[in-house]
TrEMBL record, chain A:
<dbReference type="InterPro" id="IPR027417">
    <property type="entry name" value="P-loop_NTPase"/>
</dbReference>
<feature type="domain" description="ABC transporter">
    <location>
        <begin position="4"/>
        <end position="238"/>
    </location>
</feature>
<dbReference type="GO" id="GO:0043190">
    <property type="term" value="C:ATP-binding cassette (ABC) transporter complex"/>
</dbReference>
<dbReference type="InterPro" id="IPR003439">
    <property type="entry name" value="ABC_transporter-like_ATP-bd"/>
</dbReference>
<keyword id="KW-0813">Transport</keyword>
<keyword id="KW-0067">ATP-binding</keyword>
<dbReference type="GO" id="GO:0016887">
    <property type="term" value="F:ATP hydrolysis activity"/>
</dbReference>
<dbReference type="InterPro" id="IPR008995">
    <property type="entry name" value="Mo/tungstate-bd_C_term_dom"/>
</dbReference>
<dbReference type="InterPro" id="IPR013611">
    <property type="entry name" value="Transp-assoc_OB_typ2"/>
</dbReference>
From TrEMBL, chain B:
<feature type="domain" description="ABC transmembrane type-1">
    <location>
        <begin position="63"/>
        <end position="271"/>
    </location>
</feature>
<comment type="similarity">
    <text>Belongs to the binding-protein-dependent transport system permease family.</text>
</comment>
<feature type="transmembrane region" description="Helical">
    <location>
        <begin position="144"/>
        <end position="166"/>
    </location>
</feature>
<dbReference type="GO" id="GO:0055085">
    <property type="term" value="P:transmembrane transport"/>
</dbReference>
<keyword id="KW-1133">Transmembrane helix</keyword>
<keyword id="KW-0813">Transport</keyword>
<feature type="transmembrane region" description="Helical">
    <location>
        <begin position="361"/>
        <end position="380"/>
    </location>
</feature>
<feature type="transmembrane region" description="Helical">
    <location>
        <begin position="479"/>
        <end position="500"/>
    </location>
</feature>
<feature type="transmembrane region" description="Helical">
    <location>
        <begin position="97"/>
        <end position="119"/>
    </location>
</feature>
Length: 345, 567
């Protein structure tokens, strides 16, 4: 197993900087997500890893092998990688078994060994009965599993996944998320997963690279991203929460209840702080020295109500509450903790 | 108060339905008349025209010649067309737009001009060869007056058809299918053999079928190269019999036409079948070139394509230009001999030449205008038909275009050889008959871009206008018309381009004083006036190229596929 090392990689299309000095060190066997809104350069980065795009500057290494630099470009077929495409990319003129076995054929695997390995790969995605069908006969989820089987048949060093769930309905997505996690556990391959869906990335990845306008904004585990997002933009992109200005703390510091409540009451407030809704305690009977807010709107979410609150200073705040409240009602708030953000670049 | 049956909406629908019915009948009438004539008197047994034709050795010889030249031409078209389609669509070769334009030009140049320019290129009298001192000795034969010569030119003329069919197929091949193979470990050459070729094979076969049908119906090339050598294919056989015996042999000619018609329609059916097979229902990012990297072969491959274009396009056109500048055939071109006399003759003198040019311009312009006027309401009505009925109607309208021109011409003669009943007007031997034949033949050319454009139009645009209070005629003129105007205009231009150079139909329908431009070139060459014919042809090529360029300029505002040489 070899790690994937991305050093200062830049990609220019004409005047447009699609990827701007991106550096990531991916451990062997790690499941990594590239996360960001559309147009952030995540797919371009993936295509550079695969070798479909040349890098404009920087280097990509797989273990000790130089895959790509401004002067050198190893073609995709020599990188020992595999890829799952958003559109599945199954060849319509081949049966399911032929699709899965194609990479083996190219590596000169023949005969009984070939049959066994194709059978194993199909068994792993539970598609053995469909071996002789054409891809057109399969449903979306089945096609995606064929694509997955094709990936794992050759034990690639790296598996690349380009928004593999984007074309599936919500129900199938949940099932496929399980198969991906399962697949990763069994193969122990290094996986790079591109998505714009933060919940998908959080559910699957060991580490997430959050990208914006071609740059890396934060590179951390899902838990760190949720608990300690670096900037206001990341904070608003991942999970729910409200951002307030306080007169306390400095970027990268966690504020506890007393400090946070004091900072909120002060006059000169310059530090942005993220408060997650689960850290807000709502009381329905305010006394005069509490921080109060007005209930503007509420949304029923089954297990609880989401309250959209408005502070006297005009700031919006999201909180949870087990019961329905009156719209326009005054409530008292206790903010248990908050996370200080550094300003966006 | 209006009765419910006569509201504005239903009046509108009835008028359009009536128009559609008339058009369908007019499209069907020639074929039905031909069928009736060919199958008439079958009860006479071996004396019936169909049997007489079937028993004649000349028929079978011409049929074999047709199949041989078209088959060989198809192979040449397949080679040239697939070379250009694969290289231009799949690789990162530079100057794609120009390569495509130059490769498509031979399809748009009328066949008689192609034949003439190649005749000027080879042979002992070639002014070009004479000028560079490479002409074969006098008395040696013209190598193009042969079956292989005909096949070569048919191949060059129909190669763009293969190119287009294959290119469409290649462009609809999603990029991911190629990338998935690359990352599975396939080299570029393996990707081509394992993925690209199998997936686009049906496009290749469909293109080949189209090239075959088009060659089978071609008249200009076998007429100019075959008749001097006594080598007859089916269309030239009909022409020659009609020229010698006149309308007396119409029944037999109808039987012969039926034979070509059936062959051509079988080819169309084959092509439709394979086009259907090529639709895999592919998903992914298609419509993009695949950018196989040519690397160190870039210069070599570019040189090969340019060389092919030099041979099939530039050299014959150069020969044509040289021929138009010499005082007489056989005189080498030099500073002393160069003359614009032929052009002065063509443009300056108010003779047969000028008459033919103005006839063709009037016919083509008139046909384009009338067809543009019909196409919008017709397409609008067709779009509201159930899909199966719509396809059937489109097939009927396409029939006069799909049939070889000779077949349509014979059918039109049969329809109009007697004066029209009731009004007692004789159309046979007038420009009117050619005009009607052009309308029937080119309607589908004008209609196709309009239906394509209408199909792309979001129905809610019209629904919004309807809610705003616009009646059907107003919606048609203020919402639909402005949006599809570019497609309508493009359709009209295409009709003009094809009609102004038309030879096959007019060769059988013209009469003294009613020549067309196509017939003029043919007659001038037959009468030995090659220099004048070359001058007219040079002007025709210039006109074709400039019409093609103006269509290219229009293409950003048109649905995909309307301008044939732009993907």
């Amino acid at each position: 197993m070899a790690g994937l090392n991305i050093q200062d990689v830049t990609k220019r299309f004409g005047d447009h900087l699609a990827v701007d000095g991106l550096s990531l060190a991916i451990e062997p066997g790690e499941f990594v997500a590239l996360l960001g809104p559309s147009g952030c350069g995540k797919t371009t980065m993936l295509r550079m890893l695969a070798g479909f795009e040349q890098v404009s500057a920087g280097e990509i290494h797989l273990g000790d092998t130089l895959l790509a630099s401004a002067h050198q470009h190893l073609p995709p077929e020599q990188r020992n990688m595999a890829m799952v495409f958003q559109s599945y990319a199954l060849w319509p003129h081949m049966s399911v078994a032929d699709n899965v076995g194609y990479p083996l054929k190219l590596r000169g695997v023949r005969g009984a060994d070939y049959q066994r390995r194709v059978g194993q790969a199909l068994a792993l995605v539970a598609l053995e009965p469909y071996a002789e069908r054409t891809p057109q006969d399969l449903s979306g989820g089945q096609r995606q599993r064929v694509a997955l089987a094709r990936c794992l048949v050759t034990d690639p060093a790296v598996v690349l996944l380009d928004e593999p769930l984007a074309n599936l309905d919500r129900h199938l997505r949940a099932a496929m998320e399980h198969s991906f996690a399962d697949f990763h556990r069994r193969t122990e391959a290094t996986m790079v997963y591109v998505t714009h869906d933060q919940s998908e990335a959080m559910a699957l990845a060991d580490r997430i690279a959050v990208m914006r306008e071609g740059r890396l904004v934060q590179w951390a585990t899902p838990e760190t991203l949720y608990r300690a997002p670096r900037t206001p933009w990341v904070a608003s992109f991942i999970g729910q929460g409200s951002q307030l200005m306080v007169a306390a703390g400095r970027p990268g510091q966690r504020l506890q209840e007393a400090e946070l409540m004091r900072g909120l009451a002060a006059a000169e407030r310059t530090q942005p702080v993220l408060v997650r809704p689960e850290h807000i305690h709502v009381q329905t009977a305010p006394t005069h020295h509490d921080v109060t807010a007005r209930v503007e709107r509420q949304t029923f979410r089954g297990e609880r109500f989401e309250l959209h609150l408005r502070l006297p200073g005009g700031e919006a705040l999201l909180a949870y509450h087990p019961h329905a409240l009156e719209e326009g009602q005054q409530v008292a708030l206790i903010l248990r903790e908050g996370w200080c953000l550094e300003p966006d670049q | 108060m209006m009765t419910p049956g006569l509201t504005q909406g239903s009046q509108h629908r009835w008028l359009l339905t009536l128009l559609t019915l008339i058009v369908v009948l007019l499209s069907l009438a020639p074929s039905l008349r031909l069928l009736a004539e060919a199958l008439s008197d079958l009860t006479q047994g071996s004396d019936a025209p169909l049997w007489r034709v079937m028993q004649s050795a000349g028929t079978w010889r011409a049929l074999w010649h047709s199949l041989y030249t078209s088959g060989l031409g198809m192979l040449i078209a397949l080679t040239l067309g697939s070379l250009f389609a694969f290289v231009i669509t799949l690789t990162d070769i530079r100057g794609k737009a120009w390569l495509v334009f130059c490769f498509m030009l031979p399809m748009m140049i009328p066949p008689q001009v192609t034949a003439l320019s190649w005749l000027q290129l080879f042979g002992p009298a070639s002014p070009l060869l004479k000028s560079i001192g490479m002409a074969p000795p006098l008395g040696s034969s013209q190598p193009l007056y042969s079956a292989e010569g005909i096949a070569l030119l048919l191949g060059i003329q129909s190669a763009p058809l293969v190119f287009l069919a294959l290119r469409t197929s290649l462009l609809s091949l999603p990029r991911e299918l190629v990338e998935a193979a690359r990352i599975s470990g396939a080299r570029q050459s393996q990707v081509w053999g394992h993925i690209v070729l199998p997936v686009t094979r049906s496009g290749l076969i469909a293109g080949a079928a189209m090239a075959f049908i088009s060659s089978l119906g071609n008249f200009g090339i076998p007429a100019m190269l075959g008749i001097p050598a006594g080598y007859y294919v089916l269309p030239t056989l009909i022409y020659q019999r009609m020229a010698s015996f006149g309308t007396g042999v119409l029944a037999e000619m109808a039987a012969l036409s039926l034979l070509i018609g059936v062959l051509a329609l079988a080819g169309v059916a084959l092509q439709q079948h394979w086009m259907g097979r090529s639709r895999f229902g592919l998903t992914g990012h298609s419509g993009r070139a695949h950018d196989f990297s040519l690397g160190r072969y870039q210069a070599g491959v570019t040189a090969l394509l340019v060389l092919v274009l030099l041979v099939i396009l530039v050299a014959p056109l150069l020969a044509l230009v040289v021929s138009s500048l010499v005082p007489a055939m056989g005189v080498p071109l030099s500073a002393d001999t160069v003359t614009l006399g032929a052009y002065q003759e063509v443009i300056g003198r108010q003779g047969a030449t000028w008459r033919a040019v103005s006839n063709s311009l009037w016919l083509a312009g008139g046909a384009a205008l009338v067809l543009m006027l019909c196409s919008l309401p017709l397409a609008y009505r067709l779009q509201r038909l159930p899909p199966r009925l719509q396809n059937l109607t489109l097939s009927i309208i396409e029939l006069p275009y799909a049939l070889p021109g000779v077949v349509l011409a014979i059918a039109c003669i049969l329809l109009f050889v007697r004066p029209l009943p009731l009004i007692n007007v004789a159309l046979y031997g007038t420009l009117g008959l050619i005009f009607i034949a052009y309308l029937a033949r080119f309607l589908v050319v004008c209609l196709k871009p309009v239906t394509a454009s209408l199909a792309q139009l979001d129905p809610s645009l019209e629904e919004a206008a309807q809610l705003a209070g616009a009646g059907p005629w107003r919606r048609l003129s203020t919402i639909v018309l402005p949006l599809i105007a570019p497609a309508l205009f493009a359709g009209g231009l295409l009709v003009f381009l094809l009609a102004v150079n038309e030879l096959t139909v007019s060769a059988l329908l013209w009469s003294a004083g009613n020549e067309t431009l196509g017939v003029l070139i043919f007659n001038l060459d037959e009468g030995g006036e090659s220099v004048l014919a070359s001058a007219v042809s040079v002007l025709v090529v210039l006109m074709v190229a400039s019409l093609m360029l103006s269509l290219s300029l229009l293409s950003p505002r048109l649905p995909k596929g309307v301008v044939p040489w732009q993907g």
